[in-house]
Amino acid sequence: MATPNQRRTKGVTIVRPIVYGNIATPLPPRKTQETDHTHKWTVSVRGVNGEDISYYVKKVVFKLHETYQNPMRTIEQPPFEISETGWGEFELAIKLHFVPESNEKPVPLYHNLRLHPYEEDGTILSANKNKPVFTDPTEAMYQILTQHNSSSTLPPKTAPNQPYSLQAEQEELKLIEQTYRKVQEQLRQYKERMDAATNELQQVKSELERLRAK
Length: 214
Ligand code: SLL
Description:
Layout: E1 13-15, E2 18-26, H1 29-35, E3 39-47, E4 57-63, E5 72-75, E6 80-86, E7 89-98, E8 107-114, E9 124-130, E10 133-135, H2 139-146, H3 166-213
Antiparallel strand pairs: 1-10, 2-3, 2-9, 3-6, 4-5, 4-7, 7-8
The structure holds ligand SLL.
Ligand SLL binds near residues 67, 68 and 86.
């Protein structure tokens, strides 16, 4: 007979919002000279509003860039985070594993760690929101999730212990929009130059044909 961690709660969808991202601060120039590393960074997976997610998350596996020693890092209890120093830009693969009795498959997440500062003090903050969705959760997972209330929105303002906020999200969106507009403008300029070049080419071709015909 099927047990609660095999049977599925049909027709039910449960969503648990999480925040994952990184903060990075510049290293002193002396350190950078010695190691080429430009920043100290921390990547973390958290519940929204600092909610403890360990009642359903068993462990988080962070896969760092292959240039790091032991790039697979497993964190088995909160805070689910890794701190390192480094440089450049790379994609971190993050895998959420759920408590074994839930019998739910791990959820993969991806985060781009980008150590090129754009804030004035050189601090970098980048966060993603995601909502692991459990469709037809196992009965065991259904029990685990519904025994805990979960908040579903980000706090309005950024604070030292809460860098992920609606405010930070708005600021990030504004930056994306500005960059998008800049790229559009550059595209427009390139297109103008290309049109002019095409015109010129056309004129040279007609001139050449005219000379040949003579
Ligand atoms: C880039 N494609 O050039 C990337 C590679 C690799 C970053 C970035 C390792 C630090 C260490 C590190 O920061 N790697 O030496 O442990 O932007």
